[in-house]
Each structure stands twice: as C-alpha cells, then as structure tokens.
Write a structure and sequence with these properties.
This protein has 478 residues and is of the alpha/beta class. It is 45% helix and 10% strand. It contains 18 helices and eight strands. Strands 1, 2, 3, 4, 5, 6, 7 and 8 form an eight-stranded mixed sheet that branches. α9 packs antiparallel against α12 and α14 crosses α17. The radius of gyration is 26 Å and the shape is globular. The C terminus is likely disordered. The protein binds 2-acetamido-2-deoxy-beta-D-glucopyranose (3 copies). The site of one 2-acetamido-2-deoxy-beta-D-glucopyranose (NAG) has 2 residues, from loops.
C-alpha cells in the first residue's frame, strides 16, 4: 500500500515537472559587449580566424623533406541561402519590437535582461541592404581574405612545394560547380602566385566523384541526406527542456511576454554567426540575445544534425568519402614509386559535407560514443565538433615526406592547420606503409555503385510481390 502510494506520488511529481516552466531560473545575467572572452564556436558557420592552428613549426620533420601536397578545402565564408536572407530581412522588424519592449518597460526579466551596451547595439543595428537574394551563397570579402592568407601560410611552411612558379604540371586545382568554390580557388591562387595568378588553371568538376560524389549519390540523398529519420536525434534534442529553455529565455531576454517562434530564434542565431564570420572584428548585437550556455546548446544541435547526415552516425557515410581518400593515396603511391610527372600540389575546393565524409572515410575525429539527444553533457569534449573541424575555409591537408632516416616515406595530416591525431601515428605523422594498411580496405572497396541501388522502401514492396508470385508458382504446380 505504502509502496503503491509512493509510486503514485512519484508519478504525480513526474507529471508536474514534465511541464517546462520557461521562466523558472530565468535568466542568467550576461552582457555580451563586456565579455572579453565571448563564445565564438558557431558550428559550420564559425569564422576560420577563431579556429585555425597558429603554431608555426609543426610541419618541420627532422631528416625529411616534403615532396607532395594534397588538400581538400571547404569554401570560405559566404552569404546565406535565399531563404535565410529572406528570413533575416524580417529581423529589422523584430529589432524595432525589441527596442519598443525596452522603451515601454516591457516584460523583460529582472535578472538576465540586456545590458545597456547590448541594447545600444540593437538600436544601432541595421540590416545591410546590399545583401540581397542575388548574392545568396556567394563568397564574402572575408572569405576571399581567409583563402589568400591560408595559401600564404602554407606557402611559408612549404616553400619547396608552394613557392615554385606556376605550371600546370606542378599544380592541379579542382573546384565543384559553384561560384563560392570557384571564388575560393581564385583567392587561393592569388595568395600563392600574386600577379601571376591569372596564369593558373583549374577544372570545374561537375558531379565529380571526388569533390562532390555525394550530390549525385541517389541512395545517400534518399536514405540519409533527405531522410527525415536522419534528424531523429536532433528532433529529440529540440524536445528537451534544455533546448526549449533557450527559446523561452531568449524571448524573455528580449522583452517579449510570449515565447518567440523557434524558427525566428534560429534566424537570430544565423544572423549572429554570419555577421561574426563576415566581420570578425565587429560585434553582432544578435549574438547578445544569447548567453554562452545558449550558444553551446545551439552548437550541439548542429553537431547532432551533421553527425547523422554526413558523419559517423550513418553507415552509408562511411563509404561515400572513399573516392577522396583514394585520390590522395593513388597520387602519393605514384610519387613514392618514382613517377615524377605527378603534380606536386593538388587542391580541391568543395563543401562541408564532402569534408565530413572524407573525415569519416579516414576515421579521424571519431568519438567512442555516438552523439545523441541525451548525452550533450558527456560529449562536452567531443571530437565531432563542427565548430572546430568544419568552420568556413576548413581544410584537410596531407603532405608526403621523403626521409633520410628511419622510415623513408611518411605522411603528415593537418586539419585546419593543426596536426591530426591520427590513430596509430605520432602527432599527425604516419608511416606510409602503416597508412596504406589502415586505408587498404577503404580503397579496395571503394565502389559507389550502391548509389544507384534501389531504395529500402522498394525492397519492402518486393517481399509481398515475391510472396504472391511464389504462391502463384506453388499453386500452378497442381
Ligand atoms: C554591406 O555589405 C557589403 C557587401 O558585403 C559590404 O561591402 C559593406 O561593407 C557592408 N556595409 C556595412 C555597413 O557593413
Ligand atoms: C514558426 O514560423 C514558421 C515560419 O514563419 C512557421 O512555418 C511555423 O509553423 C511556426 N512555428 C510555430 C510553432 O508557430
Ligand atoms: C562516379 O561513380 C559512378 C557510380 O559508381 C560511376 O558510374 C561513374 O563512372 C563515376 N564517375 C567518375 C568520373 O569516376
């Protein structure tokens, strides 16, 4: 009896706490403008400036000299999609309402309201009208600058390879069929060759299996990328109190009596991170809508999405990046076996998902436990963190070295200019033989034929058909 009563009690307590009170413990005080150490990690819309490795001597390997350079680059910071630009335009109106809330002593909370300097930031903010739908997806000036300086830093590290005059035997560039990857290539070439950049050539690659194979992989588009099931963990995360509280607190912080639409809060987040990646030294007032904890929760939501659509979370993602791995390994193999017609430098300009699929095929930045809606706290130090691995201008570089001492051929990996902690290698430096063993299966089984295989849905349909025709055959025997 007592047991039953206490069970009932527990049940009742559970029911009452299941209702989120969005204003409970609302809200932490936070003043963005006065924060000397603001949170800058914004998922795949993070500025490269805040992420790349600034240490300058990790490329030096004693008794070895670099002989080939291979790189896979995401384009630089860009303007948003048309839909996002349209959504951002509505923030002009929202901004006026925020100011009205504050001027009329609206319902902002006692603690956690905007500080005067953040409010002042909102007052001064205006949507830049030159960012219209016809610049959607284009590279920004910051994106070009990041590419120029990235090229120059690598040139300083590897003058033997990257300071030689341009010739199409020594350099091979490829970009996907988009303006932002072409502009990224042009800026990179400008960084390397300066006034001679006009001489450099590149191949636009349409539906190329290396740089953009996934875009033409029907099975992946159907079963992973456009499959709502891939967003299952993200949707579950959005149902959690942590996430709902972000939406409620942001609404309250901006002085609204009601909870704003989640889509609108996400648009504010986009405005904050885009503005920060276009003008790294400026402050976007939209970032002031969020506390650091809010930004970490939104960052995790994005990591969850990519973990399942182009990360370790789906089996098919393990197969798709193999063509890029194969391209790299084939080229190194030819150089190792003495083919001196191989280009010294190969650079691909591509997209977030392609880079993630490559990481998965290589097996880097893999967590022991999968990311799920429930384990954000355990995953605080996760390796799958798109802010760090996939900011704008993200790049994976592999350099082949020839050594006079010890193992003759070695490969060094860098992700965003930091040595990659490749399993079994020493601070990013792998023996060629070991690497070949590790990647042998990936390369041998690299066959994208599954891309055109029938869907899972169709195979469910074929079972009843088989059954019916089986029965037909069975009865026809009599
Ligand atoms: C508005 O955007 C354009 C295009 O990116 C840029 O050149 C200009 O500096 C921006 N103006 C302001 C005030 O940020
Ligand atoms: C939020 O706004 C979007 C677009 O304006 C709309 O499609 C959606 O239904 C809204 N969601 C809620 C929960 O009101
Ligand atoms: C790309 O992969 C598809 C599917 O495996 C194949 O049919 C096609 O020939 C490949 N294209 C190139 C250029 O290798």
């Amino acid at each position: 009896m007592i047991l039953q009563l206490s069970c009932l009690l527990i049940l009742l307590i559970n029911i009452s706490t299941a209702q989120v009170n969005p204003y409970a413990d609302c809200c932490d005080s936070y003043c963005y403008r006065e924060d000397e150490n603001p949170y800058l990690f914004m998922g795949t819309k993070t500025a490269y400036e805040f992420v790349y490795g600034k240490s300058s001597n990790q490329h030096i390997v004693p008794y070895c000299r670099p002989i080939q350079f291979w790189s896979f680059n995401r384009h630089g910071t860009r303007f948003p999609s048309r839909e996002t630009i349209r959504a951002m335009e509505t923030l002009q109106k929202l901004k006026e309402n925020i100011i009205k809330n504050y001027d009329s002593r609206g319902s902002y909370p006692d603690t956690g309201k905007l500080c005067d300097r953040d409010l002042e930031g909102f007052r001064r903010w205006q949507w830049n009208l030159s960012i219209s739908e016809n610049v959607a997806h284009d590279l920004t000036q910051q994106g070009k600058d990041d590419m120029i300086f990235l090229a120059r830093r690598y040139q300083t590290r590897y003058p033997e390879l990257l300071r030689i005059p341009y010739s199409n035997q020594n350099f091979e560039f490829q970009y996907t069929d988009t303006d932002r990857t072409r502009s990224s290539y042009e800026a990179f070439a400008q960084g390397l060759f300066g006034q001679d950049a006009y001489r450099s050539q590149a191949q636009p690659m349409m539906n190329n299996n290396i740089t953009r194979g996934y875009k033409s992989c029907n099975a992946w588009l159907r079963d992973v990328k456009n499959n709502p099931e891939s967003l299952f963990e993200l949707q579950r995360f959005k149902e959690r109190d942590d996430y709902k509280r972000v939406i409620a607190h942001v609404s309250r912080r901006l002085g609204f009596r009601f909870t704003l639409n989640e889509t609108l809060v996400r648009t504010m987040y986009d405005m904050c991170r885009y503005e920060k990646s276009w003008f790294v030294n400026r402050i976007s007032p939209w970032c002031a809508a969020f506390t650091k904890e809010h930004l970490k929760i939104l960052e995790y939501a994005e990591d969850l999405k990519y973990y399942y659509t182009s990360g370790y979370g789906h089996e098919m993602n393990h197969k798709l990046g193999c063509s890029a791995v194969k391209d790299m390994m084939d080229r190194f193999e030819r150089t190792v076996s003495g083919n001196y017609h191989e280009p010294r430098v190969v650079v691909h300009f591509t997209h977030t998902e392609a880079l993630q699929l490559l990481m998965v095929a290589l097996g880097i930045n893999k967590d022991n436990q999968p990311l799920t809606a429930d384990n954000m706290r355990v995953q605080q130090r996760r390796l799958w963190r798109t802010s760090i691995t996939n900011p704008f201008s993200a790049n994976l570089v592999a350099v082949l070295y020839q050594c006079n001492d010890g193992e003759k051929d070695r490969v060094m990996f860098f992700l965003n200019e930091k040595p990659v902690d490749y399993p079994g290698c020493a601070v990013g430096l792998c023996n060629w033989k070991y690497l070949k063993e590790q990647l042998y299966e990936t390369i041998q089984n690299c066959d994208l034929e599954f891309c055109d295989a029938g869907s899972a849905v169709r195979s469910y349909l074929t079972y009843p058909l088989l059954l019916i025709s089986g029965l037909f055959v069975y009865f026809n025997r009599f």
